[in-house]
From TrEMBL:
The keyword Transferase applies. The keyword Ribosomal protein does not apply. This is Glycosyltransferase. GO terms for cellular component: plasma membrane. Belongs to the glycosyltransferase 2 family. Residues 4-168 form the Glycosyltransferase 2-like domain. It is found in: Membrane. InterPro entries: Glyco_trans_2-like (IPR001173), Glycosyltransferase_2 (IPR050256), Nucleotide-diphossugar_trans (IPR029044). The chain crosses the membrane at residues 229-249, 261-282. One of its GO terms (molecular function) is glycosyltransferase activity. Pfam families: Glycos_transf_2 (PF00535). It comes from the Bacteria. CDD domains: DPM1_like_bac.
Amino acid sequence: MELSVVVPVYDEEDVLELFAARLRAALDPLGEPYEVVVVDDGSRDATPRLLEALRAGWPQLRVVRLRRNCGHQAALTAGLDRSRGAWVASIDADLQDPPELVPVMLTAARREGVDVVYGVRDDRTSDTWFKRRTAGLYYGLMRREAGADVPADAGDFRLLSRRVVDELAALPERHRVYRLLVPWLGHPSTVVAYRRDERAAGTSKYPLARMVRLGTDSLTSFSARPLRVATWCGVLGSLVCLLAMLTAVGAHLSGATVPGWASTFVAVLFVGAVQLLCLGLLGEYVGRLYAEAQHRPPYLVASDTADERRPTRPASWQR
Ligand code: UDP
Ligand code: MG
């Protein structure tokens, strides 16, 4: 098998057929053996049925069904772990990443002899102002924390060689943010620029809460710097405290000790808030440690059409 294309899919009934048609039109002319590994991330709409129908006319389509929604990065992990190609591309199903670019990436990788090809968005005008600004902030921060090798505006549209996929699979870390982990591995890479289109149909599966989650996961998995916030707050607090003590002694000696309700009140509130913030930061890391220590699998596979020993049972999703 030369090429695997991993596609995490969650409730994408509106766009799936369109996506399949465009991807197939891009892959068939390659004339090389390939597989498309669609990871159905516990969809509750017509997605499983549509996939079953598509499979009837497209032998290269393989469906890995997860038992329940495990999240985008976990679905990606499932697809990467089960892919068999010498090259593995990952792409979103919503046609924001053009499938026609997969062969371009493959050619670029072979021509330049690199292990990684990033799809980089050079035009985000189709995204909302808010998404552009938060993305700018995210990539800026992550380049600082995870290293300048992280290409700005590279999402999860990329091509990896088998070597990289195997290395990723061998990492003991379970909760992964691939857009940071892949550059961190440090393989020779190149980029292919593209214009990010609008979602062809359906709605985003990344509401604000999930974006925040990805952001905290990214930061905590690559930097312990937030933990130092507590230390710096402590140092600063001690200095302020020293000044306040001197003032207090001065006030006591001069006998002017009656006023001071507002300053006490504000100080108590402020110190309380800072302490809670630091506790919360600490909690983020403890939570990550806990999740990794539990050692639970990040995804749960219900069926894989390539797995003969465990045949798919469509009855399991027909409620
Ligand atoms: N996705 C997934 N599981 C999830 C959320 C999303 O597999 O829990 C898939 C989704 O079907 C799509 C890709 O991940 O193929 C990216 O999601 P989306 O396009 O909604 O994110 P956005 O482009 O809005 O950031
Ligand atoms: Mg999208």
